[in-house]
Amino acid sequence: MFHATMRSAIEGARTLAQLDSLSRTIWQAHAAETVTDSEAQGLAEALHTRRAAIREAVVPVGIPLGRMTLLPAKRLQRAPERSVAIERRRRLACSGPMPPALASRFTTGQLPVLRIDGDEMALDGA
Questions:
Q1: With 80 as the cut, is the pLDDT of residue 55 above it?
Q2: What does pTM read for this prediction?
């Protein structure tokens, strides 16, 4: 009775989750000695065959061939006008409250970051 019921449930399963649930049920019945070793093995083989058929039917959706992800390709972030960005960086580097002896130890790109960090510390304290 149990064997026939499980075999029809395996044939009617449409998802891998349903097959996993049926597999647990089979092996719990085997542990409770409701099903013999040979019956449990036969049901497990039927599960394996059905699982392979379901996996073959699964088709990836939405990913074009040759792409690894659905997300668009990343573009590098750049300032609209490079000279404007350089000018801003230099202006921030020169207008900071850092003493010249200490400022000489940092690059032109590092000084504006230290200035902005210092302004945030003065404003928020963190």
A1: yes
A2: 0.46
